[in-house]
Design brief:
The chain contains 3 helices and 4 strands, in the order αββαββα. It is α+β, with helices and mostly antiparallel strands and 75 residues long. The protein has one domain. A hairpin with a 2-residue loop joins β3 and β4. The longest helix has 8 residues. The chain is globular and about 30 Å long.
């Protein structure tokens, strides 16, 4: 997915939780800028990073075991 499609999908989310290694950051689309969110959810190729999981109004982007245990224990 390219930036415009990603924002269309994620822009209305309650939260976007992004994992990069052991670091986890939480973004709120109504409070954080589109630019700052897209910068962390898009990979070097400009498309959406994998894995990306949607659970209700929350998106989980990237992988961190602890993140998935707390945010999406069913995955």
């Amino acid at each position: 997915m390219e930036a415009e499609a990603v924002w269309e999908l994620m822009g209305g989310a309650e939260r976007i939780v992004v994992a990069k290694g052991k670091r986890v950051e939480t973004f709120v689309p109504t409070e954080d800028t589109q630019e700052s969110i897209l910068k962390v959810v898009l990979g070097r190729s400009g498309s959406l990073r994998a894995p990306t999981v949607r659970t209700g109004d929350v998106f989980l982007v990237g992988y961190n075991a602890a993140l998935y245990e707390t945010e999406a224990p069913f995955v």
